[in-house]
């Protein structure tokens, strides 16, 4: 019984990490329709940023990772992706190539073997079955969701972003500089991946392939949650995180993966539109 | 105010506009007419920069804007209400107005009040998501949104298309009142009688070319009806 309970914080924190990654994807994939295969490498960039800043302090690593990963996303959008809007397959191949380049770059810079980031003192230990580091990850995810919601619904910038996502051409002919909004959207979405990378250093080693472990699951979260929907992403991420960790607990890692995929395929057969859908008159 | 010279545009290899010239003097209302598929919407989209011009030029307020982005043209004073009463469906009515105001050149809150004075029907709906409004209300919102930028020229693409008759009246009145304030307008309109009531001048397109243009008084006679007959 205790083993079952112990699995709970593990599942929830994996869900929280997935949520952070998926939050970024709801921006770039869910709202802009760009399948960015290099999103996982922004996670890795965030994790390595934490590794480099180990002496400086963990709380400095959070904003630093956000900015580093965010800038990488911004540059990627500005240099490559914006030339390929409306061509999803080309974008997919393009960003996959970028993903491979970035992984190799990490290998050249930091070496192929994994590196370990020491958790800060104040995140060691825990209350009962709840380790502090896992609690911290959950809190980070909750905070990010709240911050993103507030940004989109309570600021002028966020409103502009929503307008562009809802009707790009109309936004342009309403006076909104859509190119600038796209860059900002990519900055924030990618920055969130960097934050996820920081969180991952608390629960495992950091390696060049770090992002690839999570990126597929994160895409599943976005699709299962309903494209671009915050609420859906939250539920889907927690569900997938728990499912993953319990399936692993009762079987083994590979069988767990198979079970997760089967569940997702089954779910999407029943609800291809995801958990939540938008319904308005104008969206026909 | 607006001077379009020999404008050419198209979609990929399919050319739609073959050298169109249109002029809108300050304070004048010019109506673009023609059958379906002659390039009316394409012309407006090219004037606004939604479609790139492959030839010719667009001059607005003495400035060559042919190569500017749509949002830059809006900030210079070109207001555009595209076809099909488009809104940002998940933003509230107020959000629709505010997002446009915040992107405008002047950012004066008073412009929202002014736009709502023109379309008072929107006032009780400000908190409603725009996607839940009726087609007529959405069209009024679309026009109010363009007004919020305080345009010097308002470009309207079939503002009465697919709208219930009671609201067509209101929209027509609003256009008349705006015209009376001295706002220049370029209007695409299918209904000949509506165009005759509102326009100072007209341009009739046929197959991507200007077939006929002139003052409103000339908008009678056989050849005009032939060009517009479906």
From TrEMBL, chain A:
InterPro entries: ABC_transp_permease, ABC_UrtB_bac, BCAA_transport_permease. The chain crosses the membrane at residues 12-35, 55-80, 92-112, 132-151, 184-204, 249-270. GO terms for molecular function: transmembrane transporter activity. The keyword Transmembrane helix applies. One of its GO terms (cellular component) is plasma membrane. Signal peptide: none annotated. One of its GO terms (biological process) is amino acid transport. It is a multi-pass membrane protein. The keyword Mitochondrion does not apply. Keywords: Amino-acid transport, Cell membrane, Membrane, Transmembrane, Transmembrane helix, Transport. Belongs to the binding-protein-dependent transport system permease family. LivHM subfamily. This is Urea ABC transporter permease subunit UrtB. The lineage of its organism: Bacteria, Bacillati, Actinomycetota, Actinomycetes, Streptosporangiales. The gene is urtB.
From TrEMBL, chain B:
SMART domains: AAA (SM00382). GO terms for biological process: L-amino acid transport. SUPFAM superfamilies: P-loop containing nucleoside triphosphate hydrolases. CDD domains: ABC_TM1139_LivF_branched (cd03224). GO terms for molecular function: ATP binding; ATP hydrolysis activity; branched-chain amino acid transmembrane transporter activity. Residues 2-230 form the ABC transporter domain. Keywords: Amino-acid transport, ATP-binding, Nucleotide-binding, Transport. Belongs to the ABC transporter superfamily. This is Urea ABC transporter ATP-binding subunit UrtE. It comes from Microbispora oryzae.
């Amino acid at each position: 019984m205790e083993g079952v309970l112990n699995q709970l914080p593990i599942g929830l924190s994996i869900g929280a990490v997935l949520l952070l990654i998926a939050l970024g994807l709801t921006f770039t994939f869910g709202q802009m329709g760009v399948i960015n295969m290099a999103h996982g490498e922004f996670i890795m960039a965030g994790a390595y940023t934490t590794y480099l800043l180990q002496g400086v302090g963990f709380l400095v690593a959070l904003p630093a990772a956000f900015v580093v990963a965010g800038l990488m996303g911004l540059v990627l959008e500005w240099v490559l992706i914006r030339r390929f809007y409306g061509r999803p397959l080309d974008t997919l191949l393009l960003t996959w190539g970028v993903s491979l380049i970035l992984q190799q770059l990490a290998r050249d810079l930091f070496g192929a073997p994994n590196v370990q980031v020491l958790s800060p003192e104040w995140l060691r230990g825990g209350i009962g079955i709840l380790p502090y580091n896992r609690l911290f990850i959950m809190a980070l995810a909750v905070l990010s969701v709240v911050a993103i919601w507030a940004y989109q619904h309570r600021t002028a910038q966020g409103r502009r972003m929503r307008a562009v996502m809802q009707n790009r051409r109309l936004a342009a002919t309403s006076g909104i500089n859509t190119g600038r909004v796209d860059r900002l959207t990519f900055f924030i979405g990618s920055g969130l991946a960097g934050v996820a990378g920081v969180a991952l250093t608390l629960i495992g080693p950091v390696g060049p392939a770090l992002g690839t472990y999570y990126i597929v699951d994160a895409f599943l979260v976005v699709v299962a949650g309903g494209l671009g929907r915050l609420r859906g992403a939250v539920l889907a991420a927690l569900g997938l995180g728990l499912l993953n960790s319990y399936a692993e607990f009762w079987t083994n890692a590979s069988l767990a993966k198979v079970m997760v995929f089967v569940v997702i395929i089954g779910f999407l057969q029943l609800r291809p539109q995801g958990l939540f859908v938008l319904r308005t008159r104008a969206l026909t | 105010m607006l001077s379009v010279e020999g404008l050419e545009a198209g979609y990929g290899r399919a050319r739609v506009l073959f050298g169109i010239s249109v002029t809108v003097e300050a304070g004048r209302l010019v109506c673009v007419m023609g059958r379906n598929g002659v390039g009316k919407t394409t012309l407006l989209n090219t004037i606004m920069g939604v479609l790139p011009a492959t030839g010719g030029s667009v001059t607005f307020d003495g400035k060559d804007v042919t190569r500017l982005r749509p949002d830059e043209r809006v900030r210079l004073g070109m207001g555009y209400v595209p076809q099909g009463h488009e809104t940002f469906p998940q933003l509230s009515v107020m959000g629709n107005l505010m997002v446009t105001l915040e992107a405008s050149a002047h950012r004066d809150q008073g412009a929202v009040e002014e736009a709502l004075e023109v379309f008072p029907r929107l006032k009780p709906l400000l908190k409603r998501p725009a996607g839940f409004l009726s087609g007529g209300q959405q069209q009024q919102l679309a026009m109010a949104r363009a007004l919020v930028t305080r345009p010097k020229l308002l470009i309207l693409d079939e503002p009465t298309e697919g709208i219930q008759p009671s609201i067509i009246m209101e929209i027509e009145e609003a256009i008349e009142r705006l015209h009376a304030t001295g706002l220049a307008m370029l209007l695409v309109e299918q209904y000949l009688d509506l165009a005759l009531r509102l326009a100072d001048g007209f341009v009739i397109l046929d197959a991507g070319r200007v077939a006929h243009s002139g003052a409103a008084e000339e908008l009678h006679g056989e050849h005009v009806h032939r060009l517009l007959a479906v």
